[in-house]
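User: Hi! I have a protein structure encoded as tokens and I'd like to know what sequence might fold into it. I'm fairly new to this, so please keep things simple.
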């Protein structure tokens, strides 16, 4: 859902933990914000103490977010759903689970485990702070973390998908209407509504109360949630229209072929003449590889006449194959993760066709258009 996982920190419970680059910026912003809070509330402390505790509290918040994600992960693992990675980014983290839960109750328990963990942490920090004087550095830091963890729990319980509260909402709708896709659709629509409310509140706080810092934060969080909600909505729409389709349904059985001995220059002319962007490469009438316009991209123009396609093609043992009965959604995910946009289709070891991302996008677009038209 978010660009590149970022920096790998290590593994916890066998799950690789990543930090998104945006966290570096947030860590800095948080430290600055907390420093100003500490220096207002505890003017007696030295600047080194203000800065040191602010940085420590930011690090502990980071650890708290990790605990929140581990809370989700523990429950997912208990249901035998593998957790691929945990990525910590701007306003929290994402525990990427290998597949969607099978039953509404599983989804409900996985979703609620995160905020429950945060509330538990809030309670622990609160308990740690209580016996000490509120003006001591230990109590001030622990109390702040109790507050931040409670905030993390409450914010994540907002009923907008893909936040935890949105997942809880989805599991409830799902349990009621037994339709997972429809439930996701409603939950992400609710996410968009929540996002617009946050943006409107942020603008109001900035304009009416003159509190620009809080206003900008709210607008930023709202915009972020809006993007995430729209993305997950689009993903579900794509899943819905591709549901039940397999490679054999979306492939073209046309198999453009070309001999390995021709030059890149001639190959590009062939592509421009026919508009076909991917070819199987033959040598002595045997399949030896595959070439597409994408493979030509990195080669300087002046080398085209003297370079053979044999030197440029993807050799047969590195071709990304598709089986004729492979689900279309899975192929699309493979195309996205490998950046290979044309894949030949095999049935019983024979090449029977070609799937391309262009063709799949056309299918998706046409089916979405048809849905709209059929509902009108
Ligand atoms: Zn969560």
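Assistant: Happy to help. Inverse folding works backwards from shape to sequence: for each of the 376 positions I chose a residue that suits the local structure. Here it is:
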């Amino acid at each position: 859902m978010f660009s590149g996982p970022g920096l790998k920190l290590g593994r916890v419970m066998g799950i690789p933990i990543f930090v998104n680059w945006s966290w570096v910026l947030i860590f800095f912003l948080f430290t600055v914000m907390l420093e100003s809070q500490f220096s207002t509330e505890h003017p007696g402390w030295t600047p080194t103490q203000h800065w040191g505790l602010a940085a420590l509290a930011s690090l502990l918040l980071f650890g708290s977010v990790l605990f929140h994600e581990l809370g989700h992960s523990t429950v997912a693992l208990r249901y035998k759903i593998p957790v691929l990675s945990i990525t910590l980014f701007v306003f929290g983290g994402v525990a990427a689970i290998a597949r969607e839960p099978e039953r509404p109750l599983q989804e409900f328990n996985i979703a609620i485990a995160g905020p429950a963990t945060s509330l538990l942490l809030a309670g622990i920090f609160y308990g740690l702070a209580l016996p000490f004087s509120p003006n001591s550095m230990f109590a001030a830091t622990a109390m702040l973390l109790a507050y931040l963890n409670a905030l993390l729990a409450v914010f994540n319980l907002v009923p907008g998908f893909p936040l935890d509260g949105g997942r809880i909402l989805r599991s409830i709708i799902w349990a009621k209407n037994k339709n997972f896709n429809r439930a996701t659709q409603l939950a992400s629509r609710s996410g968009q509504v929540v996002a617009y409310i946050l943006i409107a509140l942020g603008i109001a706080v900035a304009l009416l109360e003159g509190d620009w810092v809080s206003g900008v934060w709210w607008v930023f969080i709202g915009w972020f949630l809006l993007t995430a909600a729209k993305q997950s909505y689009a993903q579900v729409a794509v899943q819905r229209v591709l549901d039940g389709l397999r490679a054999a349904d979306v492939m073209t059985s046309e198999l453009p072929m070309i001999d390995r001995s021709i030059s890149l220059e001639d190959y590009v002319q062939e592509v421009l003449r026919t508009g076909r962007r991917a070819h199987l490469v033959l040598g002595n009438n045997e399949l030896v590889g595959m070439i597409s316009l994408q493979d030509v991209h990195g080669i300087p123009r002046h080398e085209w006449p003297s370079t053979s396609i044999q030197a440029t093609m993807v050799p047969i043992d590195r071709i990304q194959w598709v089986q004729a009965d492979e689900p279309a959604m899975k192929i699309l995910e493979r195309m996205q993760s490998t950046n290979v946009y044309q894949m030949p289709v095999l049935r019983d070891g024979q090449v029977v066709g070609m799937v391309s991302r262009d063709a799949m996008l056309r299918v998706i677009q046409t089916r979405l258009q048809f849905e709209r038209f059929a509902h009108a």
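A useful reference point when you look it over: The chain has three domains: 1-157, 159-243, 247-375. Feel free to ask if any position seems puzzling.
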